[in-house]
Amino acid sequence: MSFKIEILPALADNYIYLVSDADIGLAMVVDPGDANVVMKALNAKDLYLALIINTHHHRDHIDGSARLAKEYGAPIIGPEKEKSYISDLSRGVKQGDIVSFSTLHGQVIETHGHTSGHIAYYFPEIKALFSGDALFSLGCGRLFEGTAAEMWPSLVALRNLPDDTKVYCGHEYTEANAKFALTLDKDNPHLKARAAEATALRKQGLPTLPANLGVEKLANPFLRADDEAFQHILAKKGLATIGTDPAAIFGSLRAAKDRFSEN
Ligand code: ZN
Ligand code: FE
């Protein structure tokens, strides 16, 4: 089997992911915020759409779903808990459910916080994590519907995946995230290297994704709220009290990011 993951830029700074199996000429799409972008890519590659999967109900991730479903007769899979928000959802999925495409088996991981039912999909056969707006490179989603106490365990669940996991997230926010992360942790070599890499890629007009999860574990401040050395750095900046719950430290980091920027 030869699988390919294509990154389709859409809207202002969204990414839609097209996973295709050339052997059978079929594709699966992740978070199609714009149907036209997907149809154009399918036509160019001579692929037929077999499946639509959504991470959460925000318009920039689902707006193209209904039209694509109609055009190709493809089912829409999305979070069971957000069934009422996503029109024409064919199947609602929850923690531990499996989503099949060709010979791939995507594991559903509940990652609540950004929205109340947000989910991510991990496909071990291609080492791909579709993290939506839960985990970004060097950042994480804003807490729109959930709390820090919900979001922290969600991020820990993603952090538990293997280091060689490729992270395909919903937005191109890496450079902006790097700016904030560097205000906290400017001497972190992993962060500095990733920030430089992101700047170089954006200069060439290329996506900074997928991110490498192993690098994110070392560089993304939102995955490090329980890292003792990092907590000491945060404590000096008034962003953490040593010995408190990592979820609370994560919450104070997220609040500091909200004050810093719009993402
Ligand atoms: Zn969102
Ligand atoms: Fe989004």
Would you kindly provide a written description of the structure presented here, covering whatever features stand out?
- The protein is built from 9 helices and 14 strands.
- The chain has 263 residues and is of the alpha/beta class.
- The protein has a single domain, classed as Metallo-beta-lactamase, Chain A (4-Layer Sandwich).
- Strands 1-2-3-4-5-6 form a 6-stranded mixed sheet. Strands 7-8-9-10-13-14 form a 6-stranded mixed sheet. Strands 11-12 form a two-stranded antiparallel sheet.
- A hairpin with an 8-residue loop joins strand 8 and strand 9.
- The chain is globular.
- The model has no long low-confidence stretch (mean pLDDT 97).
- The site of zinc ion (ZN) has 4 residues, from loops.
Secondary-structure class:
alpha/beta
Q: What is the general shape? A: globular
The value of Rg in angstroms is: 18 Å
Strand content: 15-25%
Largest sheet: 6 strands, mixed
Query: Total strand count, please?
Result: 14
Q: Order of strands side by side in the largest beta sheet?
A: 1-2-3-4-5-6
Mean pLDDT: 97
CATH class: Alpha Beta
Low-confidence stretches: none
Task: Tell me what the CATH architecture is.
Answer: 4-Layer Sandwich
CATH superfamily: Ribonuclease Z/Hydroxyacylglutathione hydrolase-like
Question: What attributes characterize this protein structure?
Answer:
binds zinc ion; alpha/beta; binds fe (iii) ion; single chain; 263 residues; globular; 6-stranded mixed sheet; 25% strand
